Amino acid sequence: MIKAKTKKPPGANISKLQERETFLGAIIDVMVDGLIAINVRGKIVFANPMAMNIFGYEESELINRDIRILMPEKDVKLHEKAVQHYLQTGESNVFRKGLVETRGHHKSGKIIDMELAVEEGEYNGQRVFIGSIRDITQKKKVQAEAEVLARQYRMLADYGNDIIFLRDSKAKLLYVSPSTRRHLDREPEEMLGKNKPLLLRGDDAKEVWDDWIKTVYQEKKYYHSRLQLAHKDGHVVWFDAISEPILDEKGNLVAAVTACRNLTEQMEAEDEKARFGRILEDSLNEIYVFDDKTLNFTFVNRGARKNLGYSQQELHKITPVDIKPEFNKEGFQKLLEPLRTGEKEKLNFETIHLRKDGSTYHVEVFLQLSHTGEKPQFVAIIEDITEKKKAAEQLRQSQKMEAVGQLTGGIAHDFNNLLTAIQGGLQLLEMTTDLDENAQECVEIALRSAKRGAELTHRLLAFSRTRPLNPKVVDANVLLENMLPLLKQTITETVEIETHSRCKPALVEVDVSELESSILNLSINARDAMPEGGKLVIEVDEICVNKAMAKTMKIKPGEYIVLAVSDTGTGMTEEILKNIFDPFFTTKEVGKGSGLGLSMIYGFVKRTGGHISVYSEPGEGTTFKMFLPKAETKSKTTDEKISPSDLTKQEEGLILLVEDDHEVRTFVSRALKIKGYTVLDAEHGLEALKIMDRGLDIDLLLTDIVLPRGMDGREVARGFATRYPKAKILYSSGYTGRALSKGGRLPEGVELLSKPYDLSELFYRISTLLKG
Question: How far, CA to CA in Å, does 696 sit from each of 252, 560, 650?
Fold first, then answer.
């Protein structure tokens, strides 16, 4: 029996105490809250039946077990620290603090949301901590569902003229629309969290409130009334109010929504039926009312008529089956049956609507049977979810492309290793063998093919986005000139390509491949906008951006190089232009574009410190302008290659080569030895560390980034730098440095030799590093 820390009354009758303990024990056994007691060592010494039910354990599985088995793993250390602090100081954020929300760990592995209260006491003569536990998982779920529903109504309510109130299952206000400012001169925030008939006035205010609670919360029915709400200056305003209970899949009420329309100017002229009809007529959602027996439409609001393309008279002659191609009459009647029998109060499903012109669109239907008139009628509220469906499909497509990108990057990495060995082997053959004319020509052909393969892997890695930003100063004119052959191959013959430059040189510091991809992407978009042919013009210019322009563009004032890509195509409307850089937005047919191209260009330009703008008119073509910060001078280049006559020039130095690919390791080791270097090679990091620990005077480490056995190239380099602080480090990779990059750029001072590389690159980089 658990006892609180109280002294036994002097002379207490033992039998009565035993009787009292038996009685209290029975109460504990039937408590709706779980009760667990642990000793100062954290062992469970008592658990009542509800506690065992909450956590899914039998008593034999809990007693003398550590309390940590009932906690999520990441909460264990917090628990241990809190208990130790309490035992040392007597201070706690939990003990004697009433109910606090926390989490538990069920035997099955699932996480439980709980309310917990902790006190001290005694059990069997030992000091214990007693925890009272209440499982609030379902409560939290219901609260979360109510919040989701609130968000769904928010968009419609925020921009409407009506006042919208959303209350939770206890009638507490979760949301009040901003229109209270317009109608009542009151801020929505001052009403949130209240569960009283706030602002309700009139002699029948209490009666209206009680009737509303009874109808909506107890009977879970639709409620319609006229009511008076108090304006901030004291006068009352009449509103036509409709309320609807929101139920979960089990029929439990989770929230209630009320829409109030101001009747001040029209209540004398219109009766209740007309006012309610106008609310339905003006709704942005499609609203249908149709006869229970014949299924003929009796009312279709303006939103539905506009979307379907039918007149009111035409709709009165047809039924819901005529606009729902997925249903026949028998199937639709079967769908309605649960509403007729009272088995369900509301139906919610997705289907397709057929317009008068033959086009279709996806909708979500909320359907109920109304008994408010002379005869039962079905009321359907329809939401057009076409855009929502499209966004979901675009997300799925994006995820698929991401997976393809990852696969492409892996293939390119392995291909780079193959090309490195092929290219290097051919060059070694040239260096060490006297080839006749035919053999030399074959070697040169193979080397050119290897170079084309390297260009292909470069494109694949750019597509898979495994490249960090590697900005270099480049002349935009030269870059554009070098791209022209690729553009002419990509653009159809019916499109004429022109290039113009008003600025020479046009120096910009950018990631060259990103700029090339941006120009290519814009050119392809221009081609697609000219299916019948036209002209593509790419221009390079210079502009000085003043403070006013810079503020508008959100860039720094100064000199900029402008790359403009123009076409004579179909152009775009203002509505399209508003969303042109949004991810997943595209005007192309399904399957013809992901909608990510322009958003990626936008991101590249912004990361470069520039700005992108678009000008277009329907039928007049489109111009994209990329504003890129002007660079002052050309950057120093390290792309120089030693001449073929210098390939055999002897060098000195001890090099540690770490490379897991056998062919690449063999080629590089042999090439460096021919060059005169002494080479120690290792297949993985652990083998490399053993070589380092031999105390040899190593001059340079050449290591691949991706290595087996759990140690990558960076870790090998850190171990090397510790042992040889003055020696040089050169990384190599079939990727392009993503493993070393930070923020999309290679860290300053990092030397990376990207695969595939030839002997010229290999020898030059090593010689340069060793000579400082």
Answer: 77, 53, 21
